[in-house]
Amino acid sequence: MLIKYELVIYWSEEDKSFVVEVPELPGCMADGGTYEQAVSNAQSIIEQWIQTARELGRPVPEPRGRLIYA
């Protein structure tokens, strides 16, 4: 699956890992010991998030691309 959702990636000193948030999919987050691992884990979690939403009959937001924050 080609992932087109925006990813927000940052280092968490507390967790000693990279954290990835997917702002367009509420509650969708992943982490990993390396940047690459965190992004790979995020791809898996996004797929699971979408699959679960569909199974529950919930809407899946279309990727909007880059989000603008105030």
Compact overview of the structure:
The protein has 70 residues and is an alpha+beta fold. It is built from one helix and three strands. It has a domain at 35-59.
Question: Please, could you describe this protein's structure?
Answer:
With 70 residues, this protein is an alpha+beta fold. The chain has one helix at 35-55; strands at residues 8-12, 17-21, 29-32. It has one helix and three strands. The chain has a three-stranded antiparallel sheet with strand order 1-2-3, with helices on one face.
Beta-strand segment tally: 3
> How are helices and strands ordered from N to C?
EEEH
Mean pLDDT across all residues, rounded?
Answer: 92
Mind telling me the C-alpha Rg?
Answer: 12 Å
Feature tags:
alpha+beta
Topology, element by element:
Blueprint: E1 8-12, E2 17-21, E3 29-32, H1 35-55
Antiparallel strand pairs: 1-2, 2-3
